[in-house]
Amino acid sequence: MSVRPYRDIQRRKSRQIHVGKVPVGGDAPITVQSMTNTATTDVAGTIDQIRQLEVAGADIVRVSCPDADSSAALREIVPEVTVPIVADIHFHYKRAIEAAENGAACLRFNPGNIGSRERIQEVVRAARDNGCSIRIGVNAGSLERSLLERYGEPCPEAMVESALNHAKALEDEDFLEFKISCKASDNFLAVAAYQQLAEATDAPLHIGITEAGGLRGGTVKSSVGLGMLLWSGIGDTLRVSLSADPVEEVKVGFELLKSLNLRHRGVNVISCPSCARQQFDVIKTVEVLEERLAHITTPMTVSVIGCVVNGPGEATMTDIGFTGGGRGTHQVYIQGQPHHRLQNADIVDHLVELVEKKAAEIEAEKQDAQHQTAAE
Ligand code: SF4
Questions:
Q1: Is residue 70 part of a domain?
Q2: Tens digit of pLDDT for each residue in 328-342?
Q3: 152 occurs within a structural domain
Q4: How confident is the model over 189-201, as a mean pLDDT?
Q5: Which residue in 74, 258, 274, 374 has the most C-beta neighbors within 10 A?
Q6: Which protein residue's CA is at the shortest distance from atom 2 of ligand 1?
Q7: pLDDT for the residue numbered 1
Q8: How far is residue 73 from each of residues 95, 198, 219, 220, 328, measured CA to CA in Å?
Q9: Domain holding 286: CATH number?
Q10: Lowest-confidence range among 226-235, 244-253, 353-362, 366-375?
Q11: Ligand 1 centroid – CA 315 distance (Å)
């Protein structure tokens, strides 16, 4: 029994597959994905962007393969990056085969879209021979005409039927290393489709709200839709789709998982909105602090609160707490306990120093524990 059952999320039981070395589904951590927006044939530019996504924490990165030159470029791109690469195919089965042969860890395509059973068999063979998994990617905007005619418009039932049809095409080839997405730009439609799909299959689910919008609108929209799904235990891997720098997608994805306690990476900053009571400039401090702490990957919580109204209370649950105090004398908390005061010193510099020290301690403890386990 959990100490705080109101915080527990029971994840849906899905089977586990692998995207390269990254497990997806089962009890694996929920992974965060993004997609490059460079021309894939711009090998240097694509490698550079994938590396930026790796630094931001992306677990898996998708790269579009609209033509033969792009699938050929994977041969140069894949060895230069560490995250597994998903090749986005869509229609042409030959691109899927080339991508599998050129190092992709996963192929995103819909078996029903590539024609005959022989073609499906060829792609599945290429996937199997090269250790690739597959993502079936249903999108409300590109449902099969026959389904649209029958259902009248994109609806959850049509999306789920489409997904299960594609899944069956792979199951008929005894290929079970696949995950499914069922995206729509409308939250109601996407959430209902995923809820129904979650009941209908044990395949891992890649969740996302497609074409969600720009940085602010898309973040809010994705947080509502994906938050709803994640909270109810649905979702094994996710992408937040934003019309913005893909690095932002990764950052938002992690913030979303952190807010639901589903994944921890880096510093979780708890800060107040500030008001006339603030004893230092909270907004500016947090803005600079987040920037300066972006390199920390160790999970940690830091509170930065403008005054004693909420500062001491918030600090009790954090690794490092900071509360503004009168006459420029601020209180620092370590592990929830008052530790020392800070006067006439740069707040950000001081907090960065404390966080870096704490991160090093946590990592050292982790290593000790690993060595101990290995020795036993
Ligand atoms: S913690 Fe203090 S400064 Fe921050 S919003 Fe509340 S009252 Fe204002």
A1: yes
A2: 899 999 999 999 999
A3: yes
A4: 98
A5: 74
A6: 307
A7: 62
A8: 12, 35, 31, 35, 57
A9: 3.30.413.10
A10: 366-375
A11: 13
Distance (Å) from CA 21 to ligand 1 centroid: 45
Which residues, other chains included, contact 44 with Cβ-Cβ below 8 Å and sequence gap of 6+? Answer: none
Domain of 297, in residue numbers? 267-375
For ligand 1, what atom is nearest to the CA of residue 275? 8
In this structure, the residues whose C-beta lies within 6 A of any atom of ligand 1 are 272-275, 277-278, 305-307, 309-310
Query: Which two structure tokens, joined as six digits, stand for 88?
Result: 């986005």
Tokens 């030959």: give the residue. 94
Q: What is the CB-side half-sphere exposure of residue 324 using CA atoms within 13 A? A: 23
Give the distance (Å) from ligand 1 centre to CA of residue 284: 14
Strand, coil or helix: what is 85? strand
- Which atom of ligand 1 is nearest to 307's Cα? 2
Q: Is the pTM of this model over 0.70?
A: yes
Whether 295 and 318 map to the same domain: the answer is yes
pLDDT in tens, 3-49: 889 989 999 999 999 999 999 999 999 999 999 999 999 999 999 99
Binding residues for [4Fe-4S] cluster are 272, 275, 307, 314
- Note whether residue 6 is domain-resident: no
Tell me how far the alpha carbon of residue 326 lies from the centroid of ligand 1, in angstroms. Answer: 13
More reliable by pLDDT, 309 or 44: 44
Q: Which of 243, 259, 275 is the last residue of a domain?
A: 259
Q: Which residues are annotated as a binding site?
A: 272, 275, 307, 314
Query: Are 188 and 209 contacting, i.e. CB atoms less than 8 angstroms apart?
Result: no
